[in-house]
Design a protein that fits this description.
Strand content of chain A: 25-35%
Largest interface: A-B, 51 and 48 residues
Structural class of chain B: mainly alpha
Strand content of chain B: under 5%
Helix content of chain A: 10-25%
Number of strands of chain B: 1
Radius of gyration of chain B: 21 Å
Oligomer: heterodimer
Distance between the termini of chain B: 13 Å
Shape of chain A: globular
Largest sheet of chain A: 4 strands, mixed
Helix content of chain B: 55-70%
Strand order of the largest sheet of chain A: 8-1-10-9
Number of helices of chain B: 11
CATH topology of chain A: Alpha-Beta Plaits
Distance between the termini of chain A: 25 Å
Shape of chain B: globular
Structural class of chain A: alpha+beta
Order of helices and strands of chain A: EHEEHEEHEEHHEHEE
CATH architecture of chain A: 2-Layer Sandwich
Largest sheet of chain B: none
Number of domains of chain A: 1
Radius of gyration of chain A: 16 Å
Chain lengths: ~180, ~325
């Protein structure tokens, strides 16, 4: 089983609902965020193109944060979700410097924090909070090893890209284009 | 044209607007680790060659500084940890893929070994010293018996420590400027160079001084070539690596690096040491201070520049 997320950049309107839902669900301290919205404009006026992306930890298959962690605080659980055990984290920040997506930060309590794909909800068979609140249904979460899952069918049908695949991390957040 | 804006206002401290995970603590720790590795390497090597009497400052006296230097370095590292009370977790895991893990384990072995090394040479350094307990004398006898094994162990651990100070950074492929294997040998050679310069300064005999100046000159030239190779490698790589190299070739790190590290930390002290060898009068402290400062600046600049370089998407 491999959990992944597909985010439709055409449906996404950048409303920030996913960001707020995550902060509320996970009690993210004020001034911090585990997911965020990026607006990318390319081209020269008047020939411009815009893409809106909801970004977060990519739960990489070959996760550099897990590799460089000296204490096994950064680890993988069922479905390849990357988590941080706060009682094992020493706050050395090796994982922060090894993440090409800048998806981690130091929690005010000292340990390193990031998106968990809402593992506490996924364990109960629920969707991550960001996916559950998206008003345009731009986000799909599921098991990409199950050919009948909605996410498997979507990434088989649609064109997609991942962020910085050349970094060799095999990210598991797919952006539908 | 590409314009990329984080519109949700992400301002995670230490991450935005530019990564600032590591401040002064890590470069200082890498600097002190490098010098300690260099001092122990020379002490062990010369002892294996049976030259302890010929080069006493290197074999016996300089290692006295090592536990202090490592202690300060570890204190700096502890300052850097944001979850300090959990530092012991470093020693409940061995993670071969994590350079920080094997660096922590190397320090755990090299620190007591350096203290044992000092203890072995204590009666030679202070013949009149009364150690009071027979047990200590018995221990010194055992250490003398295993001197060669200790020396081989020290060479292996010192080389690992010296290399680790650079490999720690090159293991992070998310930071293109660090992501080059040259950093391992570069930091090792630079640490050896600082150790050689310090030994030359404190050496009492003219012979030992001359020997270490010659070693240092060789190391300075090697370090210079490694720096050239560092940029050759980056410039021959991908767009993000080329961009990382340009931070030093016209970008904001150009003046600090080429002036403080290369000109004042390598070329100038190298020239002064050469003049010293040719018996021109040079205040001996000048090249040492320049080399040690250059060493420190190299680590500060590399740690800072690595965090400023990133993948683009």
């Amino acid at each position: 089983m491999r959990y992944a997320m597909a985010i439709d950049t055409i449906r996404c309107v950048g409303c920030n609902d996913c960001v707020v839902a995550c902060q509320t669900e996970n009690n993210v301290p004020i001034g911090y965020c585990r997911d965020w919205i990026v607006e990318v404009t390319t081209g020269t006026y008047p020939q411009l193109a815009m893409e809106i992306r909801s970004e977060r930890c990519n739960h990489c298959e070959d996760a550099p944060c897990v590799r460089t962690c000296p204490t096994e605080a950064s680890h993988k659980v069922e479905g390849g979700i990357v988590l941080v055990d706060e009682d094992e984290c020493i706050g050395c920040k090796a994982c922060i410097t090894s993440c090409p997506y800048d998806a981690r930060y130091v929690h005010p309590e000292g340990y390193v924090d990031k998106c968990t794909f809402c593992f506490h909800r996924v364990e109960l068979g629920q969707k991550p909070s960001c996916v559950s609140v998206c008003p345009t249904h731009a986000m799909i979460f599921g098991d990409i090893d199950d050919p009948n899952s909605e996410i498997s069918k979507t990434i088989a049908r649609r064109k997609w890209k991942t962020l910085i695949p050349e970094a060799g991390t095999k990210p598991k957040v797919y952006y539908l284009t | 044209m590409i314009e990329e804006i984080i519109t949700s206002g992400r301002m995670n401290p230490g991450i935005d607007p530019v990564l600032h995970a590591w401040g002064w603590e890590i470069p200082l720790y890498l600097f002190l680790g490098g010098i300690s590795a260099g001092l122990l390497f020379f002490a062990a090597l010369l002892s294996i060659q049976g030259k302890a009497k010929k080069y006493p400052v290197s074999v016996m006296w300089m290692p006295l500084a090592v536990p202090v230097l490592i202690g300060i370095g570890l204190l700096a590292l502890l300052f850097d940890l944001s979850h300090k009370l959990y530092f012991w977790q470093l020693y409940t895991n061995i993670r071969w893929e994590s350079p920080m893990s094997w660096g922590a384990w190397t320090l755990l072995f090299i620190t007591p070994l350096s203290i044992a090394w000092i203890l072995r040479w204590l009666p030679d350094m202070f013949p009149k010293l009364d150690l009071k307990y027979q047990l200590i004398y018995d221990l010194i006898d055992v250490l003398k018996k295993y001197e060669k094994s200790m020396a081989y162990g020290l060479i292996a651990l010192a080389t690992t420590l010296g290399m680790y100070t650079g490999i720690l950074l090159s293991a992070f492929n998310a930071r293109p400027f660090w992501n080059t294997s040259i950093l391992g040998p570069l930091f090792l050679i630079s640490g050896l160079s600082a150790a050689a310069a310090l030994t030359a300064y404190f050496a009492k005999s003219h012979e030992e001084k001359k020997h270490f100046i010659k070693i240092d000159l060789f190391l300075i030239v090697t370090e210079f070539f490694l720096i050239v190779h560092l940029f050759m490698g980056l410039l021959a790589s991908t767009a993000v690596h080329i961009e990382a190299a340009h931070m030093f070739l016209g970008g904001s790190y150009t003046v600090p690096f080429w002036v403080l590290v290369v000109a004042m930390g390598l070329i100038l002290p190298g020239g002064l040491e050469l003049m010293e060898l040719r018996k021109k009068f040079i205040p001996a402290i000048v090249p040492v201070v320049l080399i040690v400062m250059g060493n420190l600046m190299l680590r500060f600049i590399v740690v800072s520049a690595g965090q400023a370089s990133r993948w683009l998407y």
